């Protein structure tokens, strides 16, 4: 039985500072995959890193791999294990599969339903393929995750949720400011959701966009995409004096903007209106700031209330999406179970017997119907024997386990050659 | 004869105001642009008829028809109507029509119900300084009234947004910035007119009584209102008193103006009193 394991941290378990320490750029991912594929206990592996999560999904062939990976992470990122292990989740088998499917379907995102995540997962998969670390199991699992994600997006209203929340934010901005084209927007954190919000703002043509991020490179690259200006994370407080809308999605553990900072900034900006949109979980903007005059703070829950579509419907959509994920997990599980030697051999034998029986019966009941019963039995035995002899070598080959060969690869080929997963493939 | 025609025209104007109010209330609920347009035209026609009525009333006494309380109320309503048409032409603030129609209907109802005692012609209430004083003060007060209206709309919209519970008014009112802009424009215009009105009043007093200032209650309260707006404008420039604080101040300021206009005469007395009996 292949042992599928997923370890990782995300925005729910780790503060942004820790997530950033453990994040992997594309080059780092490829380099890490090259090293990790040498590990004897790891058969397939994939590293998935965004600003909200770093996850390693792999197939283990022996125990002790989790510790090995923790040591690897600690060495590679210069973080002591005591710092990140408490935030680490270790999921196995069905739990790991379910987690992957939920992440791909954007059910585990900071803002549920945001669409960027699927593209990021596909990118992580491409890198694993490039490094040659994704084979039968991960290939299948990743493709399955893509199709679940697509199904969730297409058949539930989850995607509308994220869109409608940023739409609500724009609507609010329009009820606070009379002309957005004279307003400057500052993004705190260059996260998935920030991009989505900005995509919407761009269509409303704001005057300027500034991006402030803990990792300056990310700020620069996001600012470039929107023709904006990148700011250092420390500059965010000074910027409060001349920006008008702040969209925050850093998800830092503590408040990124405090009431005191805003109070001072408001004085400097002569109390011109300031609008905070805090989409981070946990919150970035001290809710007390809303009590200052001419300052408005909306966090993600406030925005959800504004979205007029009723909450119950959205919950139903989530329930539906979770059901799609569960279905996909069960199907994948079945495929995995069948990817063992005994079920494959049994499926092969069953299929051959069925074919031989059907053909025998057809002939014996038409052209050869004049034969006496004993002759018919003899013919049946003969055809069965032929089938068994034909299947003998392939079955022996499958049974010949051991060595360093990848059983699941050959089992998968066999199942595909003989089309044994007909039902599951539908 | 002229008095009779004048009164009839005022009654017709009142009917236009009331139907406009009904229209704006319907618009508030249904949000049909057509209803809003009709309501606006009703006010506009009402103001025209009202103006004609005041011309007839004035012709009858060969002066501005501000000799008693009824005429003063009617004049105040006319000033509000005219200034509303102007503000509405400058800014597309539809809901200000509701505020105006409400005030116009109530004021005109009072003017029509109160006994219109014919005061003996007062020769003091004539002359260029008097006319300027009256017209500027009424126009200024009316504009500050509209500032108060915009301020109330601002507070309604602001409360919903601040409480993170945008409700009934959220979609029906424009942005806070816009409401604040309208309110501020009304304050500056109204303040300017009020200042001129007070100055012409001083000159008129000097001509009539030989002194600029006579510590009359109405004078005191007028100066009080003027100071409120002066302080508000100052604070807006130098301490950023905009938005909510400014909106509250417009309401306070207009409260003082209304009290100066009615309350002082009815409660405190003074040399302006005789005009509003």
When the domains of chain A are counted, the total is 3
The CATH homology group name of the largest domain in chain A: Glutamyl-tRNA reductase, N-terminal domain
Helical content of chain B, roughly? over 70%
Looking at the chains present, what oligomeric state does this protein adopt? heterodimer
What portion of residues of chain A is helical? 55-70%
Quickly give the structural class of chain A: alpha/beta
| Secondary structure tally: strands of chain A | 10
Q: Would you give the CATH topology of the largest domain in chain A?
A: Beta Polymerase, domain 2
Biggest chain pair interface: A-B, 22 and 21 residues
**What's the tally of helices of chain A?**
18
Which CATH architecture of the largest domain in chain A would you pick? Answer: 2-Layer Sandwich
Output the keywords.
heterodimer, A: 426 residues, alpha/beta, Beta Polymerase, domain 2, Rossmann fold, six-stranded parallel β-sheet, four-stranded antiparallel β-sheet, 10 strands, 56% helix, 13% strand, B: 277 residues, mainly alpha, Four Helix Bundle (Hemerythrin (Met), subunit A), 2 domains, 78% helix
Structure write-up:
The complex is a heterodimer of chains A (426) and B (277). By secondary structure, chain A is an alpha/beta fold. Chain A folds into three domains: 3-156 and 316-337, Glutamyl-tRNA reductase, N-terminal domain (Beta Polymerase, domain 2, 2-Layer Sandwich), CATH 3.30.460; 167-306, 3-Layer(aba) Sandwich (Rossmann fold); 340-425, no CATH class. Chain A has 18 helices and ten strands. Chain A has helices at 16-21, 26-36, 65-77, 81-84, 93-104, 116-130, 136-155, 158-176, 192-202, 216-225, 236-239, 259-268, 300-306, 311-338, 341-365, 373-399, 407-417, 422-425, and strands at 3-10, 42-49, 53-60, 89-92, 184-188, 208-213, 229-232, 245-248, 274-278, 295-299. In chain A, strands 7-6-5-8-9-10 form a six-stranded parallel sheet. Chain A has a four-stranded antiparallel sheet with strand order 2-3-1-4, with helices on both faces. In chain A, strand 2 (42-49) and strand 3 form a beta hairpin. In chain A, helix 5 crosses helix 14 (311-338). The two termini of chain A are 24 Å apart. The mean pLDDT of chain A is 83. With 277 residues, chain B is mainly alpha-helical. Chain B has two domains: 1-123, Up-down Bundle (Four Helix Bundle (Hemerythrin (Met), subunit A)), CATH 1.20.120; 127-277, no CATH class. The longest helix of chain B is centred in the middle third of the chain and has 35 residues, at 128-162. The radius of gyration of chain B is 19 Å and the shape is globular. The relative contact order of chain B is 0.11. The mean pLDDT of chain B is 88. The interface between A and B is medium-sized, with 22 and 21 residues.
């Amino acid at each position: 039985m292949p042992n599928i394991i997923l370890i990782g941290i995300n925005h729910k378990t780790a503060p942004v500072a820790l997530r950033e320490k453990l994040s992997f750029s594309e080059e780092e991912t490829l380099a890490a995959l090259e090293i990790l594929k040498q590990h004897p206990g790891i058969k397939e592996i994939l590293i998935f890193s965004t600003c909200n999560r770093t996850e390693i999904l792999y197939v283990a062939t022996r125990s002790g791999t989790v510790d090995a990976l923790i040591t690897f992470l600690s060495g590679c990122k210069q973080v002591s294990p005591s710092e990140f292990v408490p935030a680490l989740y270790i999921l196995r088998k069905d739990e790991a599969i379910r987690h992957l499917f939920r992440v791909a379907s954007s059910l585990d995102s900071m803002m549920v339903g945001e669409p960027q995540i699927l593209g990021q997962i596909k990118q992580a998969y491409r890198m694993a393929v490039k490094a040659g670390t994704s084979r039968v199991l991960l290939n299948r699992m990743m493709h399955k995750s893509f199709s679940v994600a697509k199904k969730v997006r297409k058949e539930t209203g989850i995607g509308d949720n994220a869109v409608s929340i940023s739409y609500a934010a724009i609507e609010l901005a329009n009820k606070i400011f009379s002309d957005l084209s004279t307003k400057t927007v500052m993004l705190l954190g260059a996260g998935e959701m920030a991009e989505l919000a900005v995509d919407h703002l761009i269509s409303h043509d704001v005057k300027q966009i500034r991006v402030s991020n803990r990792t300056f490179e990310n700020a620069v690259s996001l600012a470039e995409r929107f023709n904006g200006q990148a700011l250092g994370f420390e500059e965010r407080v000074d910027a409060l004096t001349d920006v008008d809308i702040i969209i925050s999605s850093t998800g830092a553990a503590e408040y990124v903007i405090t009431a005191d900072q805003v109070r001072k900034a408001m004085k400097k900006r002569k109390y011109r209106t300031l609008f905070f949109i805090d989409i981070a979980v946990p919150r970035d903007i001290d809710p007390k700031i809303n009590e200052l005059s001419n300052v408005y703070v909306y966090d993600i829950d406030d925005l959800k209330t504004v979205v007029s579509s009723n909450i119950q419907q959205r919950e139903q959509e989530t329930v539906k999406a979770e059901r799609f994920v569960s279905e996909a997990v069960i199907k994948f599980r079945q495929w995995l179970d069948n990817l063992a030697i005994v079920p494959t051999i049994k499926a092969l034998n069953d299929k051959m017997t069925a074919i031989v029986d059907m053909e025998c019966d057809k002939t014996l009941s038409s052209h050869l119907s004049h034969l006496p019963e004993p002759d018919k039995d003899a013919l049946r035995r003969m055809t069965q024997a032929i089938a068994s002899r034909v299947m003998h070598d392939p079955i022996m080959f499958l049974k010949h386990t051991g060595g360093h060969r990848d059983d699941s690869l050959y089992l998968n080929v066999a199942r595909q050659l003989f089309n044994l997963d007909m039902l599951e493939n539908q | 004869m002229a008095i009779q025609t004048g009164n009839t025209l005022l009654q017709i104007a009142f009917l236009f105001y009331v139907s406009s109010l009904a229209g704006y209330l319907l618009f508030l609920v249904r949000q049909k642009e057509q209803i809003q347009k009709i309501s606006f035209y009703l006010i506009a026609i009402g103001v025209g008829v009202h103006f004609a009525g005041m011309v007839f009333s004035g012709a009858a006494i060969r002066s501005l028809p501000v000799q008693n309380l009824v005429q003063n109320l009617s004049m105040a309503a006319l000033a509000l109507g005219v200034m509303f048409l102007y503000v509405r032409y400058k800014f597309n603030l539809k809901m200000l029509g509701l505020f105006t129609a409400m005030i116009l209907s109530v004021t005109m109802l009072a003017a029509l119900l109160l006994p219109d005692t014919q005061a003996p012609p007062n020769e003091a209430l004539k002359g260029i300084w008097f006319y300027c004083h009256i017209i500027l003060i009424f126009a200024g007060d009316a504009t500050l009234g509209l500032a108060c209206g915009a301020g109330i709309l601002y507070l309604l919209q602001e409360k919903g947004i601040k409480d993170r519970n945008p409700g009934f008014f959220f979609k029906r009112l424009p942005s806070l910035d816009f409401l604040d802009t309208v309110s501020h424009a009304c304050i500056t215009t109204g303040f300017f007119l009020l200042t001129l009105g007070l100055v012409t009043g001083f000159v008129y007093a000097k001509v009539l009584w030989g002194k600029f200032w006579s510590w009359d209650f109405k004078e005191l309260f007028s100066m009080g209102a003027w100071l409120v707006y002066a302080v508000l404008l100052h604070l807006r420039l130098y301490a950023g008193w905009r938005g909510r604080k400014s909106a509250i101040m417009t309401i306070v300021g207009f409260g003082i103006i209304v009290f100066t206009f009615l309350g002082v005469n009815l409660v405190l007395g003074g040399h302006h009193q005789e005009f509003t009996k």
